[in-house]
């Protein structure tokens, strides 16, 4: 028996209902699945019987639970939009019937309710297919079915037929078909033919059909012979084949009228920066007649201009391509470049009286924009990329590709990707007379997807109308970026699907050039799409490319400035500048040249500025390239090769591997073998591994990034790998760069011995980064460890960490060299012979020897401070002027000062009383006393201090520990010489074989 309930609106966003509690409880008690229940609703709404078949959500109406026991009628909850489409109003009493025996539909045919619904279904077909059964359970002929895309956009379609007939249940075996519903564009009413006779003294009559032609700029036609045109008429140059098709004699008069495109451009999506190249006519004369026509207020100035016919003299020129036309002379201002014009033959009984007053600029127009036709700047260092991109587009135009041709230009900011895209488009235009349309997508970054879609459709329609055309979409990754983790990426995916649906479904004759920072910055749907057949990757220019770019930039500045010249005595050396600008991008080189020109102008003052090599040296001071401005680099320090004692062989290999390829780049560029890019420094603690890395950062002229273990290790899955990727990206941006990993065994131990798996993931990611397909170009990896046996063997094979350098314990000669290097920083007594201490320091490391000298110097300082001093500062011989007696007043008696505070106060008082100093630097007492204070004694380290420090020290590395490390290093070196070590066998549960 049907139950009665009241309709209650609840935003469910589906085509299902929530049942009253009286129906919900029995269904749950008998464990009836919601997918097998159909609900029949019937009621009387405003005197009209309304019924519908819907599905059940499997839930009870919350309003029924709230009103339980209050005596009110039960409620059935339904989405308000869906209820309105069915005809149910809120508060209407309906009868509810449950149907358990409806057949399962084999096929359901539907159609969208509107063209908008069909477009949404096309864009989100996959999502609707996956989520339809969770929103719709029952289909009935003539009934509307609603579905929500991503819980926001409503899609409406109506059921046309079902198999079997009648209400049916939907299941996973049901086939649902949706018929397309195209958008019908109303055609404008046909205009009456203008064949009525007119006065033969002023306007010609037209009798023959015309030929559609595309107007191109005269600058694109090579070898064009510009005729001497009359001051009172325009001239239209066409190919001889076009003139024959019109069956007209040369110099015939024709009427040139613009053809309107079959689409309407959206004014909201055509901002001022959506420009075409080259710029169209900017001089816009207006027609002035004796009897001016009344302007239609509904038509814009552009529409009125397009409808204004231009009478021109038709001439032929063999250099004009077939299907194109060039308009010059008076009246050409009304014929914009890239318009589609139809010249119609004209017959007149008398010559038309076209006077100079026909096209006159009104006196109110005071600003005239002049189109400066300049020779485009030459791009240096990217000739191969330009040829590849140009040939790809020309080939697609030649074979009449059935779809849009896509070219993707990738590069970091400042790499010149926009200039490369424009240059490719310009080259294609010079070969095919293609129309260039440029649009910067960053201006649409904050707009709604519907606005962006309209903008893309308008650009594509304009390109198809003036095909062949090249559409340049700059910075597309700003609009269609990659998906971000832990954030809603539905907007990016929606825009990516929109872009592909528009451009992949379009016809040929259009090439799309897209620029982006990289494939990782674009949405994966675009990056992996077949729309872009060629990817042009712009990298940092090499040495030879930088030399060409610098020469081109300097010559451009010299040619554009009449007050600048090169210094004949010291001209810039392009080869030297190319060597000192490693890692600079094109924009960095341009900024450097501008800074150098500014230095030359500033130095010259009123004289003629002469650009010299010294100006570039000044400009490079404190100049940070664009790629390094956001890169955190470690300090290079002040350690030089001369500050390191011993380790001669290790220093030699480091210089060959890191310094020579940068210093002698042209020589190593011709080497056919792959250069080493990874080094492992291993050895005893305190033997100079980290000191060598500091010297590398200072001496090799490379950027230096030091890595600590906590910067990379993270317990969350994916975080450590991301840190490693970002680290190598930083190094690539700062190349040539050295990545220094200290205590490498703690960052990349053997895999399989970490209970958390963090270091295993770090090792895997480092293997990928260090052995990629492209290799580490300009990035060197330097690792230091005292336990090389704990490092994962895969990182030690050739191709990753190619060479392992042992930092051994110093022998007698090396200890003497280390002592002499360290002793340069202190003052030694002349009678000290450091060679006497080489035998007494057997087993000492470099750090131990440094501590020996520093401890001896500290003893000498303490000994000097303990020299006897007089406490009387009265009138004496000035020998006790170093001490100042202080009398404290007031709060000074509250506490006793420490020795450090007392010393600091003494220094302040001495500085106030002795403001002047003698030429030797010794403090001088006030001139009122006329006596000089005694100079501070010189602190010297003698044998006594060294012997005292030596007696208080012992080697930091015990003998048994050294013996164990000797065995480890000997086994490690022998294993590397014979091959990779075999993986160790699995240990017991909880054992860690890598931690010895």
TrEMBL record:
Q: Which PROSITE patterns match?
A: AAA
One of its GO biological process terms is: protein import into peroxisome matrix
| Residue spans of biased composition, Basic and acidic residues class | 284-308
State if Transport is listed as a keyword. yes
Q: Where is the composition biased (Polar residues)?
A: 191-206
Record CDD domains: RecA-like_PEX1_r2
- Identify the keywords attached in UniProt to this record, alphabetized: ATP-binding, Cytoplasm, Hydrolase, Membrane, Nucleotide-binding, Peroxisome, Peroxisome biogenesis, Protein transport, Repeat, Transport
Q: Where in the cell is it found?
A: Cytoplasm, Cytosol; Peroxisome membrane
Q: Which residues form the AAA+ ATPase domain?
A: 403-542, 675-810
Per its record, the protein catalyses: ATP + H2O = ADP + phosphate + H(+)
One Pfam annotation, family name?
AAA_lid_3
GO molecular-function terms, A-Z: ATP binding; ATP hydrolysis activity
Which GO CC terms are listed, alphabetically?
cytosol; peroxisomal membrane
Q: Which InterPro entries match?
A: AAA+_ATPase, AAA_ATPase_domain, AAA_lid_3, Asp_de-COase-like_dom_sf, ATPase_AAA_core, ATPase_AAA_CS, CDC48_domain_2-like_sf, P-loop_NTPase
Region (Disordered) spans which residues? 179-207, 269-308, 914-936, 975-996
PANTHER family registered for this protein in UniProt: AAA-FAMILY ATPASE (PTHR23077), PEROXISOMAL ATPASE PEX1 (PTHR23077:SF12)
- Which family is this sequence assigned to? Belongs to the AAA ATPase family.
Q: How does it assemble?
A: Interacts with PEX6; forming the PEX1-PEX6 AAA ATPase complex, which is composed of a heterohexamer formed by a trimer of PEX1-PEX6 dimers.
The molecule here is called Peroxisomal ATPase PEX1
Q: Which organism is it from?
A: Exidia glandulosa HHB12029
